[in-house]
Amino acid sequence: MKRKRLDGFTIKTLFREYMVEYLHCGFVGKEDFTDVFMCEACLSWLSSARELREHMEVCPYRFWVPGDEIYRCRRRRFVVFEIDGRKMASVPYTRRIARLAKHFIEEKTTLDDLHFFAIVVLFEVDDYGYHFVGYFSKEWRKSVACNNSLSCVMVLPPYRNKGYGAFLIKISYEMGRIEGIPGSPERPLSAAGKKVFIRIWREEILQAIFSLNEEGLPLTMNLLSWESGMAVEDVAVALHRLNAVFFVNKHGPLLHLPSGTKAFAKRRGMLNIKSLIWTSLH
Predict the structure, then answer these.
(1) Domain boundaries, the chain
(2) Which segments constitute the MYST-type HAT domain (predicted)?
(3) What's this model's pTM, rounded to 2 decimal places?
């Protein structure tokens, strides 16, 4: 399978070896097909443009998602839903998300243990309904012994370079702050993923520094971890990238940043914390 077509988009897939294993449509036996037509709302796969058009006329997911809306940006017209993978009503949809992600995330995505995860999905929305953009998954903190704030994250190619990937990662850290449990992305990170996370770690630490300075609190590793929602190990990586220096005085270990760094330590980006309406499902 060379391409996946979602409404007006055609996407070149990355991992062709998943074709037969995960393609449960009536046209699997054909040797000459190169396109798979996909509903942007429910992520069902169809064999032709005609079938897709007919399906979209009756698709129940166009204006409904089996989860809870936790964020809405009216200016940029997108919404975020959290889907509980433990609920039977959510299983078909979460499996379709994982099946789609298999074509873009080779290492981590599985269809067998989705009940261990919350799936946080981002959609662009217009008068025609919801348009799947991407997602991240996170394990239930109290059901497994892990500190992962995020397991998998994926944004479809047509929606990349719009800031959605960074936005989803920052929501995962904001969830960690709300839970009071600093976390870290599941390892191993791909080369591209590591590059993105290093940039976001730097931004999150700068934001944490700004907040702690506003409150008149010392810049210690533990306070930075608590304020940023990041694991201490990731805080250390971010500080190293900022050329930070620790020293010890009578109050304990403190942090010194190069001149001018604090001036950039302000909250930026597309995440408006006041628009995030979320409580842990645990």
Answers:
(1) 3-58, 68-189+270-275, 191-264
(2) 1-280
(3) 0.82
